[in-house]
Every structure is written in structure tokens, then in C-alpha cells.
Amino acid sequence: MDSIHFENKGDFSKTFKFLNSLTKGKYMVSMLEKYGKRGVEALAAATPVRTGETASSWGYEIEQKDGKITLTWTNSHIENHVNIALILQYGHATRNGGYVKGIDYINPALKPIFEAMALEAWEEVRRE
Question: With 0-12 CB in 10 A as exposed, 13-18 as middle and 19+ as buried, what is 108?
Fold first, then answer.
């Protein structure tokens, strides 16, 4: 009777080392800082400009809570309790009953940022 023989070389120690570093947040925070800044630059460049106030009001926040790390881009340009960046993105009604269609500028600006983040994380897993 023929038999099948399996042989394994190596282990998952590098993967476990990388995943453990993620739980400590050191790698992720530094990576998110870098991409937070890049995202702000991309959003500022992509924001439709009338006065430049919305474009210059982009920022980001990194929050660590309950073992999770979150990167959030923010825009502080508020007029009459309305976030201007959001109404540029999604559109808004006008005072005379009209409607201004939104411009999808946020998603195209951040897409290359997300792709670069994913690639860097994958490269880091492979490197460790």
C-alpha cells in the first residue's frame, strides 16, 4: 500500500511576532500617523475650493480603545451647524428650493491611501 508523507519546515513565529506587535499598537500607531498625514494632504488637494477654508480644515484622529485602533479623518469647517466638507460630498438643498449635487471627492482621494496602507501591512507581515 502506498503512503503519503508530509513534511513541514518552519513555523509561524514571524507571523505571531507581527500579530503580537499589532496588539501592542506600536506598529499600527506609527503607520496610521503616516497615512493620517497623507490622507489630510490628499483630501486638502481634492477638496473643491471656493475660499480654501474647507480644504485647509482637514485633520485626523487616532483612537485606541478596547484593543482597537481607529483612524478618522475630520474636517472642522462648520457653518450654521453644517459640516461643509460633507455637503460638498453629498450635496445639499438651497434656500430657494433648489438642489446642489454633491461631488464625490473624498473616496477618490482616499482610495490610494487605503491601497498603500494595505500593501504596507501585507509587506510587513511578509517581512516579519
Answer: exposed
